[in-house]
Each structure stands twice: as C-alpha cells, then as structure tokens.
C-alpha cells in the first residue's frame, strides 16, 4: 500500500488575521511531519500537503478547529514516495491570483455541479464548456469538446473573457457556461468573475477534475488524457492512479514518452519545449545539478539541494 497521504484543500472565507495564522500553522505541520505548500490570504486558504495518515488528520483537525474553517473540504490521494521536499506556509494577496478586485468567490461563485451530474451538463449543446487551467495543463488532457483559453497564467483569464465576449466570440451572447479546473478553486473564482460581467447561468464542476476522476467510472467518463497535478506525481489518471508523465527539470513542462524520445531531451537539462530557450551557461548548471541528483540516487538518498521545483501550485498564482 502507498505510504503517503496527499490532501488537497481550499476554502474561500474571510480571514482578516491571516498573517497571524502562519506561524502556528507551520509549527503544526512540522510537528506532524507534514510537507507541502499552504497559502493564506484575506480571502481564504489553499494548498496541498502530504504525510502519514495520522499526520494529515492532525493538521486537518487543527485547521477545522477554527470556526471559519470548520467546513473545510479536502480531497485525498496516495503516493509511494513523499511528493514534497519541505513544508511552506506562504502569505499572499490572493489564494488564486486573478488580479481583479471585488471578485468574491465565497459569495458570488456559480452553481456547483456534482461529478455524477457533470456529463449531462457538458453534453448539452447549448452549454459552452471552458477549461480554465493553463495551456500546459490542458495539453495532456481535458474534457472532450472543451474550450481551451490558451492562457499561460490564471491572471490572463479576464482578458480572454473580455475578448470572447465581443461579437463572434464563444461567450458573445452570454450563453450557459460550465467551467472546470484541477481541484475546483479556479472554477469558483472564474464563475464569480463571469457573474460580475453579467453572465446569469454559470456552472462549475464541484471538486474539480480530481473528484471527477476519483468518482466517475472510466467507461462513463468524458475525460480524455491525464490530469496535471502540482507535485512530484506530475499527472494522474482515472481512479487517481499515477499518470505516465514526468517533469522537465529545466522548464517544468510535463513530458510524455514521445517527448522523452526526442533528440532534444536530456534528462535534467533540456526537452523539446525548452532546448532552445536556455543559455549554455544555464545548461551547464543543469548538468551539474543532474549529476548531484544521480549521485544521491546511487547512495539511496533524496536530492533536495539545488533543484528546479515543479511549477507552483495553482493557488500561488496560477489556479
């Protein structure tokens, strides 16, 4: 059985004292040998943590002991290896960065749609289905027929909405819109934003893609491909089984078997996405880092020194 429990969590709730919450929360996580990243902002909490089952339970109990977080919901999955290197609790302006003021997801989000009802909604020809994740995430999997905004960060989403709301755009007549993302947090904020723009019928997948893959049988699924996740697993499949993608340590793009077969792939140094984007000096630094990684592996140790971490979790400025 897998050894490490992973808990993904978020909640939009007013935390006026969020700065004061950081130190005791970090202490609780470290005392229970839990690693990962948690973000705190005035608008709430977001993040992913991993550890023993008992350790995760202790941290969740601590969080829920705050009446404002008593209804905090989390999603669980398992990993054979610890997917994080250390524990970080960060203070942010937003737990998911959109950069638009007065978008209050806690009170303005669209209609939640449970995974069991999602297929019926997205099969409706009058519904525009929008994947609100970033382009590199969409590239390895999405719901069939979903619109890809081709954003590099979530802060670009409002501009896409403005462009597509113009005549001829997919949102021009303010249709019914169904949105989805990895765990649900981007959806809450994006649907809230659409409501500020005059959209009346806006829906989002409750629990995100992860809950859908966890609960909907593969033979009934509308999902095509794998789902990118923001830890060392890189991607997951139906049932939240580990996916087939790996991470380029030079550019942090998910890599398929085909990518790794490319002449431009050098483990830890370059891939088809970035082989022409780094200087020779940078590549030499990556080579030295990779040597240290391989040396640590040969000694059955985990290399956590000079490394290129995976992309920041969505809440840190993406999702």
What do you see in this structure?
The protein is globular. Helices cover 29% and strands 21% of the residues. The longest helix is centred in the C-terminal third of the chain and has 19 residues, at 280-298. Strands 4-1-3-2-5 form a 5-stranded mixed beta sheet. The chain has 319 residues and is of the alpha/beta class. The two termini are 31 Å apart. Strand 12 (227-228) and strand 13 form a beta hairpin. The chain folds into 3 domains: 4-95, Alpha-Beta Plaits (2-Layer Sandwich), CATH 3.30.70.100; 105-225, 3-Layer(aba) Sandwich (Oxidized Rhodanese, domain 1), CATH 3.40.250; 245-319, no CATH class. The protein is built from 10 helices and 15 strands. Belongs to the TrhO family. Catalyzes oxygen-dependent 5-hydroxyuridine (ho5U) modification at position 34 in tRNAs. Residues 123-221 form the Rhodanese domain. This is tRNA uridine(34) hydroxylase. Keywords: Oxidoreductase, tRNA processing.
End-to-end distance: 31 Å
Beta-sheet strand percentage? 15-25%
Shape: globular
Could you estimate the helical fraction of the residues in percent?
A: 25-40%
Write the layout of secondary structure elements.
Layout: E1 4-12, H1 18-31, E2 35-41, E3 44-51, H2 53-64, E4 73-79, E5 87-91, H3 105-108, E6 111-113, H4 115-122, E7 127-131, H5 135-138, E8 141-143, H6 157-165, E9 176-180, H7 185-196, E10 202-205, H8 208-215, E11 223-225, E12 227-228, E13 235-236, E14 246-247, E15 254-255, H9 257-260, H10 280-298
Parallel strand pairs: 2-5, 6-10, 7-9, 9-10
Antiparallel strand pairs: 1-3, 1-4, 2-3, 8-11, 12-13, 14-15
Enzyme class: oxidoreductase
EC number: 1.14.-.-
Biased composition (Basic and acidic residues): 280-297
């Amino acid at each position: 059985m897998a050894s490490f429990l992973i808990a993904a969590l978020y909640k939009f709730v007013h935390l006026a004292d969020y700065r004061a919450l950081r130190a005791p929360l970090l202490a609780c996580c470290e005392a229970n040998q839990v690693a990962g990243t948690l973000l705190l902002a005035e608008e709430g909490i977001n993040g992913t943590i991993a550890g023993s089952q008992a350790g995760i339970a202790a941290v969740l109990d601590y969080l829920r002991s705050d009446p404002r977080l008593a209804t905090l919901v989390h999603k669980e999955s398992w990993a054979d290896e610890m997917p994080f290197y250390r524990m970080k609790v960060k203070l942010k302006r937003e737990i998911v960065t959109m950069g638009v003021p007065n978008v209050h997801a806690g009170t303005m989000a669209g209609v939640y749609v449970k995974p069991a009802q999602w297929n019926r909604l997205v099969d409706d020809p009058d519904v525009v289905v929008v994947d609100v994740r970033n382009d590199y995430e969409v590239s390895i999997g999405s719901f069939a027929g979903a619109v890809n905004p081709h954003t590099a960060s979530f802060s670009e989403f409002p501009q896409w909405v403005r462009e597509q709301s113009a005549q001829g755009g997919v949102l021009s007549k303010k249709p019914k819109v169904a949105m989805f993302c990895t765990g649900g947090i981007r959806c809450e904020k994006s649907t809230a934003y659409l409501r500020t723009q005059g959209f009346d019928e806006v829906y989002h997948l409750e629990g995100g893609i992860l809950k859908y893959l966890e609960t909907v049988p593969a033979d009934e699924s509308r999902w095509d491909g794998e789902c990118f996740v923001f830890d060392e697993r890189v991607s997951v499949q139906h049932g939240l089984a580990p996916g087939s993608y790996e991470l380029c340590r030079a550019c942090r793009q998910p890599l398929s078997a085909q990518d790794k077969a490319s002449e431009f792939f050098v483990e830890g140094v370059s891939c088809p996405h970035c082989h022409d984007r780094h200087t020779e000096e940078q590549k030499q630094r990556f080579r030295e880092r990779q040597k240290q990684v391989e040396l640590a592996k040969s000694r059955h140790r985990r290399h956590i020194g000079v490394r290129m971490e995976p992309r920041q979790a969505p809440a840190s400025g993406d999702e």
